[in-house]
Amino acid sequence: MGKAKIHVYCGDGKGKTTAAMGLSVRSIGHGWNVVLSQFLKGSNSGELKVLRTLPGYHIVEAPCATIKFVFQMNEEEKKVCRAQVQQHFRDTVAAVKETDAKLLVMDEVLDAVSLGMLDDAELAEFLKNRPEDLEVVMTGRAPTPCVEPLCDYITRMTKIRHPFDEGLNARIGVEF
């Protein structure tokens, strides 16, 4: 079968996380162990309540319940966040090994890299040396320079219209 593939769901449109979660549910349905790791997000999204109940589904809990957007952080907060994200990545790598995962979803990891919270080369090194049978899904605005050449699938979600542009905040049950 060859080495498992690397997927990216990217862009400014809605649906990146939803697509990644859908693929992870499909994998669980086929008996795969799945690891989900969300970067730059809290652990209060509605889908997590359901996913936690699935056998073989392992969630690497976010380092804190809620966080600010990086652009809202001062330098000290960015330093703390960077350390948390880097530890979260190490915890994610460990979880893949501990659970013998066949699918790893790293939600918003591409944004963690582009915002300077995680090193692009470190992520690429993990991808190059991952277990042969580990399929990986990553989401974020855009593939990073070190990661893009390694990707087998790149799907771009493009925003045409979104209520956020009119000032509507994220809604429970729809955006989280």
Give a summary of the structure in a few sentences.
This protein has 176 residues and is an alpha/beta fold. Helix content is 35%, strand content 16%.
What is the strand arrangement across the widest sheet?
3-2-4-5-1-6
Give me the Rg, rounded: 16 Å
**Oligomeric status:** single chain
Poorly predicted spans: none
Helical residue percent band: 25-40%
% residues in beta strands: 15-25%
Mean pLDDT: 91
Total helical elements: 5
The gross shape turns out to be globular
Please report the distance between the alpha carbons of the first and last residues.
36 Å
Q: Give, in order, the helices and strands.
A: EHEHEHEHHEE
Sheet of most strands: 6 strands, parallel
Structural class designation: alpha/beta
**Beta strands, count:** 6
Overview of this protein structure:
The protein is an alpha/beta fold and 176 residues long. The protein is built from five helices and six strands, in the order βαβαβαβααββ. It has helices at residues 16-29, 46-51, 75-99, 109-114, 120-129; strands at residues 6-10, 34-38, 57-60, 103-107, 135-140, 153-156. The chain has a six-stranded parallel sheet with strand order 3-2-4-5-1-6, with helices on both faces. The termini are far apart. The model has no long low-confidence stretch (mean pLDDT 91).
